[in-house]
Amino acid sequence: MGCCRGFVLLNRQENFLVVWNPLTGSSKRISYSHIVSRNNNHGCIFPRDEILHGFGYDDSQGDYLVVLASQESNPQGRQQHLDCFSLRTNSWISLDPALPKPLDQRNWQSRGLFFNGAIHWLSNCLQSYIDSILIFDLKERSFSKISIPRQTVMRCYAHLLVLGECLALYFHDNPKSYIWVMKEYKVQSSWTLMYEIPYCNSEALCLSNGFGSDIILLENGDNVVEQMRFAKYNASGELLQHSSHRSLYYPYGHCFRGKSFIVYTESLLPFPSYLKDKDKKKKTGM
């Protein structure tokens, strides 16, 4: 469901999220049963009642945050909520006043991308380049919006990613795929077309070696077969390397049915110490 500084956010059990460090094996379970209970006992809120989710790091507090926007149905109508879990305090807090209203569940891709101290969500329907990326600043606890390149309007499929420490937009326009990079954060005029790939049924993953280098993609098979194909292209769109791996699930559209993937950077960072533990140490002098 997201990654940040070597930690991966998973939805593995009903009413629980898990933050996991794949390198060290350390993990933490996070219960969201109170949100399920509030939302009329629907059961697991993913994906039915969930509008947005994201995982990121607040550098000002040294804290990892899970952000969740959900929708509650009641006789008075639908009420939207914004909840935030702090790993540092080991608790949920309500940020309802910060949530822009109304926030249509169909308007945004639910999984957010952490970048530059904020979580970003892309519009589901790119009918306008204006304000097509929703941003939640983890330090200020506030929302804002930025625009996408005019040339990407009306594309049926697109997603955000981070390439070379820049925010990037990846979209298909059969038979090709295109990657635009925002070289200067939140500056509309800095959007630059960096890659033009002669293949559309794929997902951009990462750069091979920093900004402007070759790009690695995950290509979905043309047929329903158990294959995951990885490919490396240069900036001119030339295929440099290709490899296939067997998969235990079938391709479906631009994703794999029932599965999702994310690119993360390995880290030995520990979970932040709970504030209660720090207070205890102060009192005992240890």
Automatic annotation (TrEMBL):
InterPro entries: F-box-assoc_dom_typ1, F-box-assoc_interact_dom, Kelch-typ_b-propeller, SCF_F-box_component. SUPFAM superfamilies: Kelch motif. Pfam families: FBA_1. Residues 3-198 form the F-box associated beta-propeller type domain. NCBIfam families: F_box_assoc_1. PANTHER family: BNACNNG10540D PROTEIN, F-BOX PROTEIN CPR30-LIKE. This is F-box associated beta-propeller type 1 domain-containing protein. The lineage of its organism: Eukaryota, Viridiplantae, Streptophyta, Embryophyta, Tracheophyta.
